[in-house]
Amino acid sequence: MTAPQSHFQVARPRHGAVAAGNPDGAAAGIAVLEAGGNAFDALVATAFAMGVVEPLDNGLGGGGFAVLHHAASGETHSLDFMSAAPLAAHYELYQMDAPDLGYRIMVRDRANELGHRAVAVPGAAAGLAEISARFGALPLGECLAPAITLAEDGFAMAKKPVLRLNRTLEVLSAFDGARQLFLLPDGGIPREGETRRNPDYAHTLRIIAREGADAVYRGEIASLIVAQMREHGGFLEADDLRSYRAVWRAPARGVFAGRQVRTMAPPSSGFLVLAGLDSLATAPGDSREEQRARAMLEMFRARAGGLGDPAFSRRARALMLTATESAETTSLSSMDTAGNAASLTYSLNTHSGVVVPGTGMLLNNQMLLFDPWPGGPNSVAGGKRPASSMMPTVVLAQDRAELALGASGSTRIPTALMQVMDRVFNEGADLHGAVTASRLHAEGHRLMADEDVQALATALAERLDLELALMPGRDPAMGSVQAVRRNGAHMEAVGDPRSGAVGRVC
User: Does residue 74 contact residue 394 with C-beta atoms inside 8 Å?
Assistant: First the structure.
C-alpha cells in the first residue's frame, strides 16, 4: 500500500525505508538499499546526497551526530562528529562590542558568524566514513556514487533550498566563492525546478571515494582548506584537521511508554527529550496539550547548568538556550529488514559564506554555537565541540528497533520529537498523523503554536501565563521531523511536509 501523498509511504518492505528532507536525498538511500546495502549504508548515501541538494544546510563542511542500532549485536551506538573549535581559537580573539544582550553577546565584525574565523573543524567526512567502515555492508565509494552523480550531472532545485538562498542572499553575495557557486551571474537566485550542478564538489567526493576521509584531514582537500584559512586570517590549521576524530559515545538512555529510548549524550541536548518524556507521566493539566506544555517548560528548566563538551566540563548536562543555533539543519532516518535502524542530524549552522576554491565545499560557522563569554561550559576553547540541540533518536521495543527519528529546528527539536513519540506510543496515532499534527513549543516565558490551533493555544497561554506567538501555516521553525517506523509487517516512512521532505519504502 502506497499513500498518495509524496511525503510519506507505508508498505511491506523488501529492503527497508528512508526519510529525508529532499526527494533526491531519499532516492540515494533507496538506491543503496536496493543495491544490497543496509540501513547504515543508506544513511551515509542519503547524508552525502543531501550535501549536494541542500548545500546551505549541510555537507562536507559541517558536523553533527548519529544514533545507530545494530540488530546483530543488539547494541545501540551514538557517534559525535560535531565540528570542533580550532586549537588557536580563544574567547579573547572574539572581541566584544557589547555586554550580554538577552541571550546573545555581540562579537565585533560578527567574526564568529561570518567568514573564516567562524569556521570550526568540519566533522562530516570523518563521521560518515566512520559509520560506513564500522557498520556498512558496501564500500564507501558505492555510498558516494549517488551524490557524485547529482553533483556532476545536476539536480532540480527544490523549494526549501530556494527559500534558504533568499534568506541568506546578503551573506552569499558578500563572498566571491559563494556568490559564484550558488547565485546566478546577475546575482539573482535560481528558481525552483532549475537544474544546478557543482562539479568541484563531485571532484571532491570522488577523491573521498578513492582515498577515504583522510583526504579531507590530511590530503589534497586538507591542503586547500588550510591555504584558504591562512590567506584570510582563519584560525583553522593543518594540525586541527590532522587531530580531528569522530567520537563514539554511550547514548543517552530513557524509558517511555514501555520502550527504550536511545538518543545523543552531551554535547547534544538529547537528555532534554528524555526529561520531557519523563515529565509527561506526572505533568498536571486538564488536557494532553497542557500536560505537554508543562513538560516542555520543565525540560528547559533542566538546562540551568549549561551544556558543553563533556571533555571540557563536568557540568555538561543541561542546555543553555542560544539565539545563534540555526533551525536549518538536515535530519534523516533509515531502517532495513534485518532490523538495523539509524538516525542522523548534521548542519553547517547558518554557514560562514566561505567556499574553499576547487572543492565546491561551503564551510560551517559553528563557532557561533559557542558562548563567546569566558568561564561557561560552552565557552570557546581550542579543540572543544559546541553545544547543540541536534538529537537523532532510536526507540526500541523488546530490544528491536521500532522507530528512528530526528528533526531540525534548534530548541524546537526536543519538543517536536516529544510530541511525535507521545502521539505514536500513548495516543496510538500512525506515524504520518503524529508528524503532521499541529505542534506547540513552550520555553521560558513563551508559547509558540501553529496558527490552526489558535483557540487552544490562546487559552493555554493564559492559563500558564505565557506570551503567545502564532506561527503561520506549518512553519518548519516548529521542527521538521523525518522518521521511519517498523509497524508489524510494514514500514512507515514520513518526511515532514513542513520542509518538503520525503519518506520512501522499498
Answer: no
The pLDDT of residue 100 is 43
173 vs 180: CA distance, rounded Å:
9
CATH number of 144's domain: 3.60.20.40
d(CA 422, CA 436): 13
The answer to whether 391 touches 458, Cβ cutoff 8 Å, is: no
User: What total number of domains does the chain contain?
Assistant: 1
Cα 463 from Cα 290, distance rounded (Å) = 9
**299 near 414, Cβ under 8 Å?**
yes
3 located within any domain: no
Residues of the chain with pLDDT under 70: 1-5, 91-108, 302-327
CA dihedral 151, 155, 157, 160 (to 10 degrees): -70
**Omega before 161 within 30 of 0, i.e. cis:** no
Q: Which of 204, 329, 393, 411 is catalytic?
A: 329
Q: Is residue 178 part of a domain?
A: yes
State residue 175's pLDDT score. Answer: 96
- Domain holding 424, by residue range, is 8-505
Q: What distance separates the 2 farthest-apart alpha carbons in the chain?
A: 61
Q: What length is written for the chain?
A: 506
- Per the domain annotation, does 409 fall within a domain? yes
Burial of 162 (0-12, 13-18, 19+ CB in 10 A): middle
For residue 318, what pLDDT is reported? 34
Grid-cell match 503554536, residue found: 449
Other C-beta atoms closer than 10 Å to the C-beta of 134 total 13
- pLDDT tens-digit readout, 194-211: 999 999 999 999 999 999
Q: What angle do CA 134, 309, 97 make, to 5 degrees?
A: 135
Sheet holding 446-450, edge to edge: 440-443, 446-450, 467-471
CB of 56 closer than 8 Å to CB of 79: no
Kindly report the three-state secondary structure assignment for every residue of 405-426.
EEEECCCHHHHHHHHHHHHHHC
Q: In this structure, is residue 454 part of a structural domain? A: yes
Cα–Cα distance between 37 and 31 in angstroms, integer? 9
State the amino acid at position 151 in one-letter form: A
Q: Catalytic annotation on 329? A: yes
Helix, strand, or coil (residue 386): coil
Counting Cβ atoms within 10 Å, is residue 176 exposed (0-12), middle (13-18) or buried (19+)? exposed
Instruction: Report d(CA 344, CA 346) in Å as an integer.
Output: 7
Tell me the per-residue pLDDT of 30-79, one tens digit each, with 9 for 90 and over. Answer: 999 999 999 999 999 999 999 999 999 999 999 999 999 999 999 999 99
Say if CB 444 and CB 300 are below 8 A apart: yes
